[in-house]
Amino acid sequence: MQLFIRAEGNPSIGLGHIMRCYALAETCHALSIPVTFLCSQETHDFLISRHGFDCSIMVLQNTDKTEQKNARAVSANEIAALLPQDAVLVLDGYQFEHAYQHAMKQAGIKFAYFDDINLFYQHKLMPKEPELKHCADIIINGAESAFNMNYEHNAVNSKLCLGNQYLLLRREFHHLHPTPITHRDSLLINFGGADIHNYSTQLLIALDKLGFSAPIILVTGAAFTHQEALTKSMRNLSKLAFSVQHIHDAQKMAPLMQESRLAVCAAGGTQFELLSCATPSILVVVADNQLPATLHAAKQGWSDICEWQEKVDIAALAEKIIAQWQDEADIQSKFEKAVRHQQDLNFAGAENILKVLTELAHS
Question: Is the pLDDT of residue 70 over 60?
């Protein structure tokens, strides 16, 4: 089998989709399975900046930067012409909407689709809209919430790879031994790979106003475009009661999460990394596709959830952080629950996915 991955990462759509595929590519490399990314020049530049990245990349010339409305700029026939006979394609991104996937199927491409919320089924629930059937050969959703997504109704011709056994985690998060909560003293802030609205800077200012005094680790992603505003604010807040360690485009997140007593992060794939590190968390939902898995994490008891898809309430978030930070019993309880649920994580997700993809390639 030769695996091809079609995904993007940039300031407009964030880095979650490309990082999920990166986790799959890591295992491909470990198992000597050829893998090639099909992406824009911008995503190419991000991928080659990853330490240890060792995969092939084909830069597609006709991609739209945001790809929210123009994913078909690179047609299915163009993609098909790039793929050898034993190839399997993986799609990850909501820009690859139903019409695009249908074109892939019509072109005879064998492909899998990473999904989070079964948007095609939700389309059926809209007034006067037709039901959209999945046409991917394989649907992959590694969250336990996947079993409540109604795939059995609109993916009847797709192989369903749902739940924990298909969860993708980068290898730095495999089989960690959590640092005791008594040995942690930092607050971790990370609003994802892009943080389009610059919540990072706003939250620092709000915490300063409320007199927060513990050390802060602030991580901004490679697609973060507000460096100048952040730097200016940190200069203006030079007399902060807390120290701030700002790390841009962190290549290793596990050590930072392991030393954090509490994390405030955008929800998404990051929440599984936090669980692997047994880090008590406040998960901020900034997109609808993050909600189902985050609700499941909140039920597990190691994290709290803030549903602010439209706009994050920074003042309320700062108050919540301080209240939680001061509640030692709650922090201890969340840590213990995280340790317990960390043991349920499946670190063979990539291998399980590759097994199914190989079967598809040979079918």
Answer: no
Rounded to whole angstroms, the Cα distance separating 275 from 246 reads 22
Take residue 123 and report the two structure tokens written for it.
């389309």
- Residue 33, Ramachandran bin (φ over 0: left; ψ between -120 and 50: alpha; else beta): beta
pLDDT per position as a tens digit, 206-260: 999 999 999 999 999 999 999 999 998 888 775 666 789 999 999 999 999 999 9
CA distance 39 to 62: 10
φ, ψ for residue 167, nearest 5 deg: -75, 135
- Per-residue pLDDT of 162-219, as tens digits, reads 999 999 999 999 999 999 999 999 999 999 999 999 999 999 999 999 999 999 999 9
DSSP 215: -
Contact 71, 95 (CB under 8 A): yes
The string of DSSP codes covering 25-83 is HHHHHHTT--EEEEE-HHHHHHHHTSTT---EEEE-TT--SS-SS-GGGS-HHHHHHH-
Taken in order 48, 353, 288, 307, is the CA torsion positive or negative? negative
